[in-house]
């Protein structure tokens, strides 16, 4: 028994006027594993609690298997919730902790067979007679999971169930959760702020920002075709490189995207996507380069579609199986306010306030800007001066504007000037508000490639 969960234009406010969930629509298929992903405070738990019936829905509609369910009490929803802080009864053994809800739901029925079967599934048979105080954190979480599973609910709602555990155990339990939910075939909604966890667990991932759904898709889709700069920056490690660029499309010359001191020359004949970029002529855009789009190699080894830039090594981060090289290419990184450290955040806010329209200022005061554009770039006319010819980073700036992943056998040291080949086929371009314009939204490249 599993169920379809669908939300239609669902909103929720705690304080007047500030929506923490804003017109969210989401259709979760029976048996699907859907992950709600987003930074802290974006409304993930609130969405989950509305599905569970623990939080009232202000506006919009919740349907369970197509039936209107806004007012259905939690007990009538047949769902089991697993929280970050697994609450086990301290005076009960694992067996009783797992069996307790069964005794309440089906009085008169012997819970032992179900408890035993669940324990076998989770590999906790040996722990059944112990008290919670005699269990490790991971074991306790498994017992808590057992309590949810033994009930045979029609859906699991899990709110960061692994975030209190160490990395090794988290990975282990992640694999177990995947296996279990597949075996049980029960619809699961799983909340996390950890993108790697979301990508490894979900059939689909729904990315939230400030209570607003940004994108929902398979892990492959949200990685390969992020709808906006927020999704692009939130998903993937190392984080996608985001550089501020200027499109130059002269009528009689090659089309380029200027990156401050250097530029990317778009290979001819122009692809359909790049032809569409022409309308951005003279406008500032954001160029997104994932680490697989850039490689350190001799210019002569350039493959078709690769263009050359150079970078000054600022910092080499050794990671064992790979090395992350931080380069200064003389370009300016684009800032996604919610995902940055406090310093650039303040800078962007101030600019927005000074330069914003009356409407923007009102929306900001009303707290509605969280749902607005992901990033707002100023007009190129009042942009900062171009970086100096020596490509030396300004005082106080973080070293490097471009991070490239490479194998550990390359010997690179700070201060070296290195050729970089950029694969234009892997280029993302976002407009001034952070919406993806390249690859063009209408044209979906073959993801099977
Ligand atoms: N009972 C409440 N009263 C007032 N505001 C609340 C309440 N619960 C949550 N909020 C606010 O609503 C917003 C969304 O909260 P929510 O707990 O859904 O976020 P989240 O995405 O789960 O965050 P985290 O990853 O930190 O758990 C936050 O700004 C939070 O402060
Ligand atoms: Mg939460």
Automatic annotation (TrEMBL):
It comes from the Bacteria. Keywords: ATP-binding, Nucleotide-binding, Sugar transport, Transport. Gene3D superfamilies: 2.40.50.100, P-loop containing nucleotide triphosphate hydrolases (3.40.50.300). SUPFAM superfamilies: MOP-like (SSF50331), P-loop containing nucleoside triphosphate hydrolases (SSF52540). Residues 5-235 form the ABC transporter domain. GO terms for cellular component: ATP-binding cassette (ABC) transporter complex, substrate-binding subunit-containing. InterPro entries: AAA+_ATPase (IPR003593), ABC_transporter-like_ATP-bd (IPR003439), ABC_transporter-like_CS (IPR017871), ABC_transpr_MalK-like (IPR015855), ABC_transpr_MalK/UgpC-like (IPR047641), Mo/tungstate-bd_C_term_dom (IPR008995), P-loop_NTPase (IPR027417), Transp-assoc_OB_typ2 (IPR013611). One of its GO terms (molecular function) is ABC-type transporter activity. One of its GO terms (biological process) is carbohydrate transport. SMART domains: AAA. This is ABC sugar transporter, ATP-binding subunit. The lineage of its organism: Bacteria, Bacillati, Actinomycetota, Actinomycetes, Kitasatosporales.
